[in-house]
Amino acid sequence: MNIFHKCKLSILVCSLSLSTFFSAPALAAEIEDPAVASENRYNLEIQSNSWESWPAGPQIYAETAVVMEASTGTVLYNKSMDQQMYPASITKIMTVLLALENLDLSEEVTFSHNAVFSIDYNSSHIARDEGEVLTVEECLYAILLESANECSNAIAEHTAGSVEAFAEMMNQRAAELGCTNTHFTNPHGLPDENHYTTAHDMALIAREAIKYDKFRQISNTPRYTLRATNKKSEELLMNNHHYMISNYKTSKYLDDTVFAGKNGYTTVALNTLVTCASRNGMDLIVVTMKTQGGAERGVPVYTDTASLLNYASENFHKVNIAENETNFSIGQSGLFDTGSTVFGSPEPMIELDPEGNVILPVTAEFTDASPKLEFLDAEDGQNIATLSYTYAGQHVGSTNLYLTGNTTQEHDFQNEEDANSQDATDNTGESGKEEVRLIKINLRDVGIAVFSTLLAAVVIFLTIRIAKDHDIDINPISRWRTWRNNKNSFLNGNRKRYRSRKRNRRWK
After folding, report:
1. Predicted confidence (pLDDT) at residue 381 exceeds the cutoff of 60
2. Beta strand 316-320 with 350-352: parallel, antiparallel or unpaired?
3. What's the pLDDT score for residue 466?
4. Does the annotation mark 162 as catalytic?
5. Are residues 338 and 386 in the same domain?
6. Is there a catalytic annotation at residue 152?
7. How many structural domains is the chain composed of?
């Protein structure tokens, strides 16, 4: 029996060895070499390079990416920007945005047991304890600088009552911002197959976040000292882990044009990065997702972003719409100019928002952009239309058309000679100040009156012309005279006959 068992064991070992030998190539095929994977991502298609008359963008190692100009929402670079990806800690931009929208920075946040102990032990945190109290502002510094997951949980619970309710708020807000491929399940970005977004959606979220000065301030802080708390007797120095903002571990990628950003990393998401920079008068948002790390810290995550920022600033410029558009402004002086200053007002009746801009390639002129006018039914009656522009089939900016707020103006109708001949005392009141008699004219009402008069004149002219062409007498006096003459005509059998005086006397 021992010999039998030994033979059986030997056969089993040989079988396993052969199985392992023949299956090894298949397993090796499933485990992709990181270097090969990185090179494959580098060679993926860049969709914006196929846009007609659009500057070609650089190849990058990120699997998906986008460059957006914040003030206009113009997409300058698109590499699979709508592909769903795992975001990792750049999720926290939405968490901070909701905190800024719903909380006061001085509010106190108490850490629950769930907030502290529901996160992975090896994930990013600043070692807060259950029952510890921080302000909202302190939590936001911990979230954006140290990517503290327990602080994200605490903010979520303080805002919505629970992490699950806060995730619902995140998804609702994402939809309001125009995100179409995003679903959040937590406030920190730790792996979950139902927690995903896209580079484009993250750019939309970042675009909203940078409208808050506090977000810019916190996100652009290289380091922050957290005070001692009710649970910690010592201060804690926190460092920003975005290497274009902070020299925490290297100063190689520092960029003084960068004013906000957030980094992220998990084993499934790989490196994700959001960076906001001011270049060439533009606020640029760069989002890169799923980048393989290199041997040197920060490569190629930050070199990708640097290349995209250089591409955007060197190939595009901002053009003000109000300063260049001439087709959608109606001046009052053009409508009512009578040679006097009464109607010759230099202010337009319709004006363009002076803050509206378009983003165009440096090789393009403003006239190369195609405008589209869409009228609005605004309740206040001031914003009457939106004027949007496209170039090469891409949205490049828009602005609003307004009715000018001051359509009623005051004018002095006092005759200059009379004014000079009057005694100074006649023009002064009890206060000793000169009294000027003013008449208010509502130019909108004047415009309606002028239009009505012109319309009536046109109607009268056409009526006379038609009557003349068809021999129709429309003069009531002339028609009455004709009728009277016809009635008294001898050829009219019904005319009124009068007896002569002689005949009357004869019959008497």
Report:
1. no
2. unpaired
3. 77
4. no
5. yes
6. no
7. 3
Q: What is the CATH number of the domain that holds 233?
A: 3.40.710.10
Token couple for 351: 């004006």
Whether 419 is covered by a domain: the verdict is: yes
Residue with tokens 């949205």: 395
Asked whether residue 167 falls in the same domain as residue 109, the answer is yes
Choosing from 48, 80, 89, 388, the catalytic residue is 89
Residue 147 bears catalytic tag: yes
Token pair in block for residue 269: 């998401």
Together in a domain, 120 and 249? yes
> Smallest Cα–Cα separation from 263: which of 62, 22, 489, 5?
62
Q: Is residue 310 a part of any domain in this protein?
A: yes
Task: At 165, give phi and psi (nearest 5°).
Answer: -65, -35
Instruction: Indicate whether 2 belongs to any domain.
Output: no
Average pLDDT over residues 360-388: 85
Q: Which amino acid is at 328?
A: F
Q: Are residues 158 and 102 in the same domain?
A: yes
For the packed helices 136-145 and 92-102, what is the interaxial angle rounded to 10 degrees?
Answer: 160
pLDDT at 487: 65
Q: What is the pLDDT of residues 323-368, one digit of tens each?
A: 998 876 555 444 444 444 444 555 556 788 899 999 999 999 999 9
| Domain range for 363 | 332-406
Q: Say if residue 277 is in the same domain as residue 374.
A: no
DSSP states of 375-436: E---SSSSEEEEEEEEETTEEEEEEEEEE-S--EEEEE---HHHHHHS-GGGGB-TTSPBP-
* Among 147, 152, 246, 398, the one annotated catalytic: 147
Return mean pLDDT, the chain.
82
230, part of any domain = yes
Q: Answer yes or no: do 372 and 421 share one domain.
A: no
DSSP state for residue 279 in the 8-state scheme:
E
Q: What are phi and psi of 201, to 5 degrees?
A: -65, -40
CA distance 389 to 366: 10
Segment 193-236, tens digit of pLDDT: 999 999 999 999 999 999 999 999 999 999 999 999 999 999 99
For the whole prediction, is pTM greater than 0.70? yes
Backbone angles phi, psi at 375, to 5 degrees: -80, 145
Of the listed 79, 92, 262, 290, which one is catalytic? 92
222: burial class by Cβ within 10 Å (0-12, 13-18, 19+)? middle
Supply the pLDDT for residue 442: 55
Q: What is the pLDDT of residue 507?
A: 47
Q: What is the mean pLDDT of residues 74-101?
A: 98
Give the pLDDT of residue 376: 79
Residue ending a domain, among 316, 349, 372, is 316
% of the chain at pLDDT higher than 90: 60
What distance in Å separates the CA atoms of residue 117 and residue 129, rounded to the nearest whole number? 9
Cα–Cα distance measured from residue 224 to residue 213, given in angstroms and rounded to the nearest whole number? 17
Q: How far is CA 196 from CA 81, 152, 180, 411, in A?
A: 13, 17, 11, 63
